[in-house]
Amino acid sequence: MKVAIVGASGAVGQEFLHILAERDFPMDDLVLFGSERSAGRKYNFKGKEYEVKLLQHNDDFKDVDIAFASAGGSTSEEFAETITKHGAVMIDNSSAFRMCDDVPLVVPEVNAADALTRPRGIIANPNCTTIMMVVVLKPIDDLSHIRKIHVSSYQSASGAGAAAMAELQQQYKELVEEGRVKTVDKFPHQLAYNVIPQIDKMMANDYTKEEMKMFNETRKIMHSDVRTSATCVRVSSLRSHSESVWFETEKPLEVADIRKALETAPGVFLVDDPQNYVYPMPLESAGKDDVYVGRVRKDLADDNGNTLWLTGDQIRKGAALNAVQIAEYLIRVGNVK
Ligand SMILES: NC(=O)c1ccc[n+]([C@@H]2O[C@H](COP(=O)([O-])OP(=O)(O)OC[C@H]3O[C@@H](n4cnc5c(N)ncnc54)[C@H](OP(=O)(O)O)[C@@H]3O)[C@@H](O)[C@H]2O)c1
């Protein structure tokens, strides 16, 4: 099994290296790719050094079985043919192919089998905020169909990549040392001491692209007609996104039944003792695999509604871990070339 990581120097690329090592992913060889910015740089994987190769249109992917791509949408679009032409399965973290009819969009806890039908050799990893929400809502949807979702996200700086995470740290440094922020580049406004109610570009309907990803991708992954209305917000946590989620089911559900379903759901960790100040927080879910969920309670404004709070490491479950779990599933069912 030969594995490639495209975008190895990035926030998600680096997480792939950690997760593949931690999970002892069954592989014999590894090859790393990047642009001219990181080509030649060396990274350690399980005690061995690997040099980043320049991503080019050639036959470098000839012997690759699985290629994890996390180098942005335009790179994925440009190189998909080069990556897949010799039979490699491309598991893509960008949004380039997510809504294409001939590309499955997969969260293993929800729709693993969709990964088996991939006419273009591409499997799309969904949007990070959407992945974490559907992992939590799937066991509830199994109790009673979810018709509507209202969600507000609290997304960390690292969701915009390694340089964005560094920018937030730099802004706090400037505030302490100089009393004002000078560096505003990766976000549209100062993020330190602030929240920004815009993630990704604004669309014609005044929702952002990130919010429309939550609407469209949730339907595709859950094979559902559910409607999701989202407000996605950047906050100044460094790692791990959080979400406040209201959902309306066809039949009214008891909170106790929801908690019970969440307790046994794969990929979910219930942390729910609010009377004793126990609920999920991003500092705790950072670096962890599960999506943490708590504050489960009845919606006061809707008899068929309930509400909960979740938080999860979006570089892990929202990106690299989900992609590796897809690959593990393909290996388990014998579906790699
Ligand atoms: N960060 C998250 O939480 C998260 C979550 C879900 C999905 N994603 C998606 O994952 C992808 C990567 O995100 P990230 O946060 O890791 O970004 P990042 O930290 O900015 O890293 C971007 C990576 O892409 C590589 N790259 C850019 N242009 C390239 C090119 N022309 N050829 C080869 N490599 C190229 C960069 O390599 P060089 O250093 O060599 O330029 C770098 O390794 C994006 O599509 C993002 O939307 C991110």
From TrEMBL:
Keywords: Amino-acid biosynthesis, Diaminopimelate biosynthesis, Lysine biosynthesis, Methionine biosynthesis, NADP, Oxidoreductase, Threonine biosynthesis
E.C. number: 1.2.1.11
InterPro entries assigned to the protein according to its UniProt record, in alphabetical order: Asp_semialdehyde_DH, Asp_semialdehyde_DH_beta, NAD(P)-bd_dom_sf, Semialdehyde_DH_NAD-bd, Semialdhyde_DH_dimer_dom
Residue ranges annotated for the Semialdehyde dehydrogenase NAD-binding domain, each copy included: 2-118
Record-level Gene Ontology MF annotations: aspartate-semialdehyde dehydrogenase activity
Sequence positions that bind substrate: 155, 234
Binding site for NADP(+): 9-12, 37-38, 158-159, 314
Reactions catalysed according to its record: L-aspartate 4-semialdehyde + phosphate + NADP(+) = 4-phospho-L-aspartate + NADPH + H(+)
Pfam families referenced in this protein's UniProt entry, alphabetically: Semialdhyde_dh, Semialdhyde_dhC
Name of the protein: Aspartate-semialdehyde dehydrogenase
Record organism: Prevotella illustrans
Primary gene name: asd
